[in-house]
From TrEMBL:
Residues 1-22 form the signal peptide. This is S1/P1 nuclease. It comes from the Bacteria. InterPro entries: PLipase_C/P1_nuclease_dom_sf (IPR008947), S1/P1nuclease (IPR003154). The keyword Disulfide bond applies. The keyword Glycoprotein applies. Keywords: Disulfide bond, Endonuclease, Glycoprotein, Hydrolase, Metal-binding, Nuclease, Signal. It comes from Mesonia profundi.
Length: 261
């Protein structure tokens, strides 16, 4: 009997542990949704070339690679590529030299490596996976948040009564609460016109970062530390989050079509 009880306790602890980990993971669904949306806007030629380079995997599968490698110290040098902290009132060009490597720099570096004939196939796989992820990160507004609070990570809030932080609310809490898979999120993206798509495609990583920064400033102003966020916050902000997923997907497709299309 003691053995049965002990085994049951181990199983319960394992299941509980998995649930906690999943809740903490544009978490995975955000990145996959952005990539799945991008897939709809890729040319047939681009899809063929990208699928071949990824050994048959989709860009949705590849989209989480840059987070998965964080557990390997060999890739620790790429951690700065996931965000960019542009001081309020400044343009990226004004502070570019001070920032060093960042999300905008990383996207430009990936594009350059993918366009170069000197880049080996294995390295092109790496930079493609990084590019897919970084474009997603750039459209999560708090990846372009303040440096002093680590993009909202240090702003403690409650999410439906449970401890969280502002960054996590945008990374995963709202998406998890909405309870749609990444394919459902992409299928149910807002219907937009060709003119709207053309407008979204304008610019580059630098201008898109400044757009995200503007949204981040509004997010900061909308919440106080230790506030309990819930249904009203979802109502006010989730449409903006879905809009960012869609913009990220359209812009990712634009970049990939320019490289592979």
């Amino acid at each position: 009997m003691k053995k049965i009880i002990s085994l049951s306790l181990v199983l319960v602890l394992c299941v509980t542990s998995k649930k906690v980990t999943a809740a903490e993971d544009w978490g995975q669904n955000g990145h996959r949704s952005t990539a799945q949306i991008a897939q709809k806007y890729l040319s047939k030629k681009a899809i063929r070339r990208i699928t071949k380079l990824l050994d048959g995997n989709s860009i949705a599968v590849a989209s989480t690679y840059a987070d998965e490698i964080k557990s390997d110290k060999a890739f620790s040098g790429y951690s700065k590529w996931h965000y960019v902290n542009i001081p309020s009132g400044k343009t990226y060009a004004e502070v570019e030299q001070e920032l060093g490597e960042n999300a905008v720099w990383g996207i430009e570096e990936c594009i350059a490596k993918l366009e170069s004939e000197d880049t080996e196939r294995r390295d092109k796989q790496f930079y493609l996976k990084m590019l897919i992820h970084l474009v997603g990160d750039l459209h999560q507004p708090l990846h372009v948040g303040h440096a002093h609070d680590k993009g909202g990570n240090d702003i403690k809030v409650k999410w439906f009564g449970r401890d969280s932080n502002l960054h996590r609310v945008w990374d995963s809490n709202m998406i998890n609460k909405y309870d749609m898979s990444f394919t459902e999120l992409s299928v149910h993206a807002q219907k937009i016109s060709k003119a709207e798509i053309k407008e979204i495609k304008k610019g580059n990583a630098e201008t898109w970062a400044l757009e995200s920064q503007t949204i981040a400033e509004a997010i900061y102003q909308s919440v106080e530390e230790n506030r309990n966020l819930g249904f009203r916050y979802m109502y006010d902000w989730f449409p903006q989050l879905k809009n960012q997923l869609q913009k990220g997907g359209i812009r990712l497709a634009k970049i990939l079509n320019e490289i592979y299309g």
